Amino acid sequence: MGDSRAESIDTQASESSIFSPPSDYKRVKHLKKFHKKKSGEQLWLIKLPRSLDVSKLKTLPLDLEGREQPIPVEGGNDNDTQYSIGEDKTQRGGQDSSNLGLLVPEENRESLKVSGHGNSLKFDKIFSVRKNAQIPKIDYEKVTVPRSNVVKVEGLRTRHYASGYGPEDEDKQEEAKEKDTSKEEHSEHKSKKHKKHSSDEEHSKKRSKKDKKK
Questions:
Q1: DSSP assignments along 109-140, one per residue
Q2: Number of separate domains in the chain
Q3: What residue spans carry the Basic residues bias annotation (predicted)?
Q4: Is 113 among the domain residues?
Q5: Helix (H) or strand (E) run with residue 85 in it
Q6: How far is residue 87's CA from residue 67's CA, in Å, rounded to a whole number?
Q7: What is the C-alpha to C-alpha distance for residues 52 and 72, in angstroms, rounded to an integer?
Q8: Which among 153, 144, 94 is positioned nearest to 123, based on CA atoms?
Q9: How confident is the model over 43-94, as pLDDT tens digits?
Q10: Which of 143, 103, 109, 139 is nearest to 123 (CA)?
Q11: What percentage of residues in the chain have a pLDDT greater than 90?
């Protein structure tokens, strides 16, 4: 019983691991026309977005230094359909650091195999065509709303405190405010006294001058 059960499990596992290609894939009848890479040739991968119609491309400008270049599209580029092409720098460093793999023909040219690491076939350069987002011009003077200050309500009391703070901290702040207020009032009172004293002296001087004239 145990052996038959194990065999049935293995059979189910092998059946579930059978590869089924996507529905839109077409079966290749033969691979004899598959181009073999020669010495001095490079294999490039150019990734395109679905929104770009390849038949409308006039040219495909490439900057070998990796800078992005705008792509001219037949009929002109609309404001919402600007494209550019540039080298995918995340895939630099060869096959060992790339997350992309190549399917290459077997020696009998009847089936495909995944190209391995080392001296196997790999992409020399990878380019990506990107759809650029066009940011419209904004008239900030028209869209900016003037700030309105919140009306301050007097007599509010703090019920909730931030972490590390409590009512005693608020009491200290209130005491400091009261001290500052009392100092200001005291200085104002002293200045008033000084002014009054100086005015009294001036008044007495004027009276003494009048008495001398008499």
A1: SSSEEE--STTS---SEEEEEEEEPPPPP--H
A2: 1
A3: 205-214
A4: yes
A5: strand 82-87
A6: 7
A7: 12
A8: 94
A9: 888 888 888 888 877 777 777 676 788 877 765 555 557 888 888 776 655 5
A10: 103
A11: 0
Note the Cα 191 to chain centre separation in Å: 60
Q: Quick one: which of 98, 94, 175, 87 has its CA closest to 126?
A: 87
Residue 60 belongs to some domain of the structure: yes
Mean of pLDDT values over 108-136: 75
Domain of 111 in residue numbering reads as 40-141
- CA-to-CA dists, residue 28 to 19, 32, 64, 74, 212, angstroms: 16, 10, 34, 33, 131
pTM: 0.44
* Vertex 57 angle, CA 35 and 74, to 5°: 160
Residues 22, 25, 30: CA angle, nearest 5 degrees: 130
Is residue 193 situated within a structural domain?
no
Examine residue 54 and state whether it is found in any structural domain, yes or no.
yes
What is the average pLDDT value for the chain, to the nearest integer? 71
